[in-house]
Amino acid sequence: MRNPKTRLGALALASVLALTACSFDSDTGGDTTAGRTTLRVANPTPVVSLNPYAANSADQPTLTVVQEAFETLVSRRDGEIVPNLAEKWTNPDPLTWQFTLRSGVTFADGTPLTSADAKASVQALIDGKGPLAGLWAAVAAIETPDERTLTIRTSEALGTVLSNLTLVWIAPAAKLGDQSFFTAPYGTGPFKVASFTAGQSVELVRNDAYRGERPKLEKISYRYIPEISGRVTALENDEIDVTWGLPPDQLTGLRDDDRLTVTSFPTYANYYIWFNSSRKPFTDPRVRQAMWHALNLDTIRKSLFDQAGTPAAGPLPEAVFGAAKQNPYGYDPARAKQLLTEAGFPNGFTTTMMWSTGCCTNGNSFADAMISDWAKAGIVVKPQELERATWLDRLLKLDWDSTMTTGSTVTGDADFTLARLYLSTAKRNGYANPALDKILLEARRELDQDRRAELYAQAGKIVWADAVGIFPLDLSGNVVLRKGVQGFTPTPNDLPDFAGVSLG
C-alpha cells in the first residue's frame, strides 16, 4: 500500500481526471454499451485505501469497491439477516455464537475457505483499531473447532453480532499480515482487484472461481472524477456508464436525456455537522444548541436539497432499526443569541469547520449558507476544505473544531452509528456522557430486538437534545446509468453494487 504522502500526491493529481474522463480501457469506447463487458464507473469520492480492516473500515468509497471482491459471513437483505459464507448459525447460550461455513468455497487464487480465514478476518478488524473495532469490544475468544466451524465467545451478551458481521470481509488468513496484499486484494467474491492507484482508479476483473452466478461483466473500472461538471460531461459524452451522488440541480436535466436513466431511492445515510465536544467553546451544550438554532435550515434545504432527501427527525435516518423521531430545532436567532450569552459568549466567537473535497451533496454551497447564518449570530466560522485523506486523519485525531460530512448506518442497525460514534470510549467527536453510555451498552447486550429499539430511541433523544451535532437531512440516493446498463438494484446502505449488472 502506498504511504500517506504518496496517497496525498495521488489525490492532488486526481483533479486532472475531470479533463481526461475518457481514459478507460480500450474496449470501452464507442457510443453504446452493446458488446462491451467493462462497466465504466465514475465514483464521486476518491478511494484512498482497499484495506477494510483499519482506518478505512467504515469508509464508503473503500467499502463500495471491497464489496465486489470480498464476502461476509452474513448479509442484510430486505431488512433481514441472511446466510452468505456462513450457511447457518446457532446461539448455544447468550455468550456464544457458532457459525457453520459453506463447504467448497474458494478464494480467487483457488485456496479453500476455512474457519481460520474467518477468525483471522474478525481479528484483523479488531486489531486494526479502526472505526469498527469498537463493535467487537465484548469479544472474549474466537475459536475454530474444525475447518467449517467458527465460534465467537463474548464477555457479555452481544445482540449485534449478526449485524456487525455484515461488515467483516473475509480474506485469506495468510495474506492479512502483508500490507502489499491490499494493493490488489482478493476474496471469495465475484471480482478481484487487478490494479489500484490510491485516489485515482481501481480496476476489477471477474473472479472466474466465484461459486455463485458468473458475472456478465468482465471488468469494472472505477475512476475518481472530482468535479460534478466533469462527471456530467462524461455521462453525456458516453465516457462513463454510471455515477452517483449528483446534486439535485443536475438531475433534472439528466432525467430529460433519453440516453440516461436516473434512479432515486431512500438510504441509511444522513448529513451531519459534528462539534468537537472536547474543545472549547463546544464543551458547553448551550453553544452547540445555539449553532443549530442559528441556522435557517428550511430555507437552505429548499434552495440546495430539493429531491436530495427529507428533513431529519433524529440522528438516524428513519429506515434504520432503532431510529425514533425527536422534537425539531426551530430557526430562532434570538434563542441562539440568548444561549450564547448564557454560555459566556454574548459577542459570539471565532471557530473553524472542516470537510473533505467532494464529501457531500452541494457541500461547499451548504457550508457557505451555514457560515452566513452563523455570522448573523456573531459566530465567525472559517472554512477548511481538505483532501479526503487529510480530513480523515484529522477527524480520527480529533484535530478539529467542527466537521461537515455524510455517513451511512451501513448495517441498518442503530448500534452501528449510535454506539460506534457516541460512546465515550469511541472518542470520535469528543462527546462523553455516562448516561448515554449506559443506555447504549445495555442496548448492545440486549438480545430482545423490541427492547433494543426502545433503548436506541432513548439514546437518540440524548444525542439530539445535547446537540452533539446538527442533523439537517436524511439523504436519498441517486444513481445515473446509461440506458444499456441493466440489472442494477439500489440498496439503502449507500454502497452501489454492480456485481449483477450487464451491458446490453
Automatic annotation (TrEMBL):
Record domain Solute-binding protein family: where: 80-427
GO molecular function, one term: peptide transmembrane transporter activity
CDD domains: PBP2_NikA_DppA_OppA_like
Presence of the UniProt keyword Electron transport in the record: no
Domain of life, per lineage: Bacteria
Subcellular location: Cell envelope
Keyword Cytoplasm: no
Keywords on record: Signal, Transport
GO biological process, one term: peptide transport
Main localization, broad class: other
One cellular component term from this protein's GO annotations in UniProt: periplasmic space
Signal sequence segment: 1-23
Family: Belongs to the bacterial solute-binding protein 5 family.
Name used for this protein in its record: Peptide/nickel transport system substrate-binding protein
Lineage: Bacteria, Bacillati, Actinomycetota, Actinomycetes, Micromonosporales
